[in-house]
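User: Structure please.
Assistant: Input sequence and predicted structure:
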Amino acid sequence: MELAKLIQPKAALLFHKADHFEISLCQRLNRIGYSRRIRLFFKGISRLGDGVFWYTLALALPLLDGIKGLAATGHIAVAGLACLALYSQLKNRLVRQRPFISFPDIQAHTAPLDKYSFPSGHTMNAVNFAVLFTLFYPALAWLVLPFAVLVALSRIILGMHYPTDVIVGAALGVTIAYTSLAIFPLGMFAGLL
């Protein structure tokens, strides 16, 4: 608890500076959401990025690829839980306000899942899942990689995140994916894959 008390004031100062540095890019991307069609498209992407897209794809793997698909799904699920644990801890300790809360000219084009924005959990999970699905099933890269990019963009366009929230979320997602593979390498699945 003492560490959190030391971190929060320093993080708040750093975020305050970053917020003002990033606000113009946030505003430009957020304005894209003023178009009803674009806003609905990115709301749909963000909603699918809540897990629907990834869970459906993961549950299809065992059905389509048997035990190999089940092993891949298990690995992906554990890495996803690691993302969830990490981003919820960081958000609750670093407490960066969402752009639409800090800046009245940023519109929230969707309802937030929580109060804080750093890092982007949607982006962290999307990148983590995209990396792992691509490594386990390279043929899925054409689907999962563009979807992960759209999820990341959606979070800024919808007014939920700053660009650095998304960039850090993506970096953490890549780190978790490759760390999971360092702990449980693809070679462990060689007999199955």
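The chain is about 75% helix and 0% strand.
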